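Per reviewer request, we include the raw input and output of the structure prediction for the construct analysed in the revised manuscript.
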Amino acid sequence: MVGPRLIAAVLLAGWLSGCGSYALLAPDTTASYTAPDRPPAAAQSATALTTGSVPAAKADTAALNSLFARAAAGKLDDPQAKADAPDIAAPVAPPAKASDKPAEPRGRAYLFRGVAGLIYSRGMDKLAERITRTGVSASVASYLTWRGAVDQAIQDYRRKPAPITLIGHSMGGDAALGFAEALNAENIPVSLLVTYDPSRIADDVPPNVERYINIYQSDNIMGGGNVVQGSRFHGHYASYNLKDHSEIVHINIEKADRIQEQLVTKVAELAVTPADGEGDALPLRLEVPADAAVELWDSALPIQAHAGDTLKSIATTYRVPLWALAQANAVPAREPLAEGQRIAVPRHLVPTPDRNAIPSAVSSYAPVAR
């Protein structure tokens, strides 16, 4: 998979260089990696880690706008005019307050922008800032620099294990998957991996990932990556196709505020949320209707129906939308279910109330083999 991915990146970079914009992609003009839990990086905003020639980037914004506008054709008349996606998810619990910060960092988060990230992946900067405010250390960098970040992450984990979160937008999502693969080779677990509209040549999810969430649009030219589980993946898997949400395109998908809120809450709770959860973890794949909120469940929980149950009655009992239950099971909403029939119900992993009930915040399982 490395060869095609590099070829795709080089071809796009070559196009941008023809517009005078290749400086945005050059390694020496992207954010330099800083260990996320080493002062003063932990106290800085993610934006402060960004270096490079922003004025030069602005000079070429028009050319890049043209490229991405064509990619988004049919989705928005003016993508730039709607660069900030509206709130499209149901209200969730607010992130932890700054006054509630623990004495020790509760994890490390590594975020990666995509191609032309200094202009079109800035949602990653805002997300990193929000994660940092919860007490979890976060860094943000270009997708081109992930290999250097891995080396530092391995050292930091060996020195002091802590839950690892990886989040990437566009080619940054591909980078996050590559990052997870490199950690898998070192037998290091990834507590949460999130990809925003990765490319169609992105790798599968490796087996050391405990929770994976993909938020994408299958009809996006610049992304559209429908990432699947690797052969030995056994964790929680949830995939959300937002193709019917016309207010979302590739260049604003990572900026949706309520989706960010949900991710920040998940990252903040990782240290006290058991990865095994209750019951088996069934993969969850949903196409979110245009009029439905985007709720980021972690996976599906198998239950056994009772005679006379219907998907509608189960949806009421478990407080999940009927459309999501119907998609997860391909059963008519009002059709009576048989006694003992297995039904997959979308579910959230929840933190353990007693922190002392969890012997370790970091999983010991991280198989190297695919």
